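Sequence in, structure out.
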Amino acid sequence: MRRRINNLISVFITFFKLSILKILHGSDIKYSLIERFSPNVVVELNRKGRLILGKQVRIHSGSKIKVRKNGTLRMGDNVRINYNCMFFCRNSITIESGCEFGPNVLIYDHDHDFKCKDGIKGGTYLSAPVLVGENCWIGANSIILRGTSIGANAVIGAGSIVKGNIPAGSILIQKRELM
């Protein structure tokens, strides 16, 4: 019973947060009536950033979603994001329906441009879209970098660093040597 009450409270808080973002950003944010974010989930949407959520997106405590100017983050239906995940979007991140993320997953669609004259301080970035196909499982502590495309039904093992194309139905495990 207590769990149901907490879930209802989370749904109401999420609706309130997303409604405020809707007032501030208008058509740049789209969501269904019932989404469930834990109360301390951070959602930042810069001017001209777009956030599009499918039905029944669930995001747990400590997670952060940051969409910067001209970036677009899309999540399909029934996406589940575990504790302390962070998605940082300057270009495009698309997460298709049915995906699940373990705790502490990071997704970046950009890197600092170290070749520019001012280095990190110059605030210039290299960016490329990120796509996570339908029904993927991304294991705990994984990092997905710019320009990555993960095909439908793929599994990314815990602690993986992913860049490039991962075919549909693949299982990616990055082995580590013990010291």
